[in-house]
Amino acid sequence: MTRLLERLTPCGPVVDPKAAERAHEAIVRRVGEAAPLVEAAWPALAPIFSASPYLTGLARRNGLRLPSILDSDPDARLEQILTTAEAAAAEPDFETARWLLRELKADLHLLTALADLGGVWDLDAVTGALTRFADATLHAALAQAVRLEVARGALTHVGEGPDGPAPGLFCVAMGKHGAFELNYSSDIDFSIFYAPEALPVAEGVEPQGVAVRIANHLGRLLAERTADGYVFRIDLRLRPDPSSTPPAMPIDAALDYYESVGQNWERAAHIKARIAAGDLARGAAFLAELQPFIWRKNLDFAAIADIHSIKRQIHAYKVDDRLTAKGADLKLGRGGIREIEFFVQTQQLILGGRHPGLRGPRTLDALAALSEAGHVTPEDRDYLIAAYRDLRALEHRAQMIADDQTHKLPESDADRKKVAALWGHGVLRGFDAAVGRILKGVNRRYGALFKGEEALSSRFGSLVFTGVEDDPETLATLKRMGFSHPERVAATIRGWHHGHIAATRTERGRELFTRLAPRLLDAANATGAPDDAFNRFSDFFAGLSSGVQIQSLFLAQPRLFELIVEVMAFAPRLASTLARRPTALDALLDPAFFGPMEMPRQVPWDPADFEGAMDAARRLFRDQSFRIGVRVISGTAGARDAGAAFADLADLIVGGLAPAALAEVERLGGAFPGQVAVVALGKAGSREMTAKSDLDLMTLYAADDAAGQSAIKGWAADSFYARFTQRLTSALSAPTGEGTLYEVDLKLRPSGTKGPVAVSFAAFEDYYEREAETWELQALTRARVIWASSPAFQARAEAAIAVALRRPRDPKTTAVDVLEMRQLMEDERPGKGDWDLKLTAGGLVDIEFAAQFLQLVHASSGGPLAQNTGEALAALGRAGLGDAAALAALEGAWRLEQDLSQLLKVALEDGHDPDTEPKAFRALLARAGGVREFRSLKTKLAKAKAEARAAFEAVVKA
Fold this sequence. Notes:
Blueprint: H1 17-31, H2 35-51, H3 53-61, H4 65-70, H5 74-87, H6 94-117, H7 123-151, E1 169-173, H8 175-178, E2 188-194, H9 207-223, E3 234-235, E4 248-250, H10 251-261, H11 264-270, E5 274-278, H12 280-294, H13 301-312, H14 319-322, H15 337-351, H16 363-372, H17 378-400, H18 413-422, H19 428-448, H20 472-480, H21 486-497, H22 507-527, H23 530-542, H24 548-556, H25 558-570, H26 572-580, H27 586-589, H28 610-634, H29 639-669, E6 674-681, H30 682-686, E7 695-703, H31 717-733, E8 744-745, E9 758-760, H32 761-770, H33 774-780, E10 784-788, H34 791-805, H35 811-828, H36 844-858, H37 869-878, H38 884-907, H39 919-928, H40 934-955
Parallel strand pairs: 2-3, 2-4, 7-8, 7-9
Antiparallel strand pairs: 1-2, 1-5, 6-7, 6-10
């Protein structure tokens, strides 16, 4: 037995002589008569205490601690500390036990540091001492926690022997704790499981409450900081789904989790699992039952690829910044400890199912086994073993300076010199170079593992979502990608990996999501609005009933996926549709999606089923309007095509619901001998609809017999067709379980809101001959019959509209009326800024009014009539019925404003300023406007509007 004093050697130079001298004076004064021991050891102690305020504090705090450690054999001293810690289990006073364990931790930390830095213990001895002490204190703390529950009457007794203090409850050590690889300032990772039926609870006491309180007591005893410090920080987050489960879990619930949604990183974590405290037999049985989950004998390609993903999520954003000593993260950074552990564990998961000899929990033992089996070259094995030992030693020294749970080398040269000195380097440049070589060597070998496979990181950096805590590099990557709340994004993705949503509840779904996640984040970044894109995708993704088919589609068609993410970023209405009704995505699966936007020839409902028809119409509307909107966002549909497609959809729906409404009225009141037609006005009539257009409608009817009545209720024509109009309006506008369709406006009918909702044919003809004002005739230029009860009546209605429009008009009187109406609109509804494309000067109203005026004044002499504004302007130009330059200016402005309006209506809420939207959306808008840059678009739009206003004033002259 040799005293530590006699075995210590200096670890390196004295980095701060003044700090060493101050420490020497204070310690000698504190130890009193034991000063000769300190003096004898001082050549080895000076480099340590000059660099580490923490170790100096431990030596000064208790005058007996340092002398007793120096005067003892280190191995014997360790056994004494462990025995005393174990004995704390029987201490009757909880607070005394808390104090004792903290004092023992201080003894252990000083002993371990001196034995490590003084060259007495190697890495295995250091990590073994720390881990054995963690086990001893965990056992004592568990006994103390149980004693508290016995005192409160929740448990009947404190258990003894192999059943542990709480029979049925045990602690599974994980990670470095499980593998006897704890670092100097490590927390301890363990999970608490229990068998409810085995816990000795008192009558009427719920086992879960007791188990959770035991977990909380462990935190108080081990992790809570007091004036005497703490024992260990504890981490219980490696249990199943820690965000939604209690800190202590029933065994059956844990096994169900691992069997159903356990992930590959959890399999990797359990490679190192062992029972550290509690009911040893029950714990061993639990781990035995987990073996098939950890070690799968049969792995398909997808499962192997998902294991590979653990490695492929890591990427350096700026290589030079990551492979130097300054600020290097020795654990998580590139070339760090994690890369060696992943190098080993990923191969263990793939090979260990069939080869039990490769299942070793300790990193270096497993690395040696892999090499012996021919899976790692001897050269790589030797390099990685040496690098692992060096990195762990560096990690320990960085932590010894201030007992910080850090894994990084300091940024400042002065602080890094302290670590260098504790590692035996007196020249910082040489130290930095040595560390850099280690990092580069590890990273080179790690990079060669599974080489050539699909990257699961981003050009912005690592995207690691394994484990239960945030990866610092991943948070930095997410921040670089533009996410405002990286922690929230990381937590959401981890939740999806945990199977919190249906799309990732199956193993195959999680494997696919592993590949999809980085693509999602890159696509969100590319939109320029990553927060909106991710949040809306999250709503959609959470609403899926399953995820394999959709994720497979997204992975197979990356452009389609990017388009969907663009929709999420730029089109809240479409994103909301997808979130509420994910089946809307089916429209995009049609191979003809990017072909001509043709509507189905027939509606998918039976007119005899009025309620069913309403629901089916809403499903059809949702799918088709989503399809049109996506085409607009993608830039594959221009304004003319989109406006026509929205109008065709409205025609199809009205054409399918009108017969259903008529059948419903006939069911209630009996058939009526007559004819009816539905006339679309406004943008529906002119086929210039956008995503937000309402339906301006009018119903025209004619009774076969003026005195006719319905067969059952005896309703007259006006009553029967008023009911038809009301039923149709309800069918088109009332919300159902499938959503809504359109806002319906009947105010453009003769006499507006003062007249009957259904217009008789005679009243229509009379009104437009005698009473209609110019603005009503303007509206009539866009009238289009979209459904009629018979082809003959449709032709009759169209002829009546033409007659009304082709009556002679006085050009000057008409011009005065048009100008007065335009002025009234400007007074009562002024434009709301440059992006109000409808009401501002030179906007769509000016252009429409000019086209309507010219049609009205020339129709009587055979001038062209066209509901669509653009077609009307082109026809007027061909007929020479207006100044050619003015008509060209109007038509050009109309096309530009229609192109922009379609995109704006799909993407933004009314009143949103495109100037404040993301750059990527502004680029979409510029593309829609036929220019390369957004600022050029603003210039082009301003010029077009000015020219359109001038043309309006030139065309409509009183």
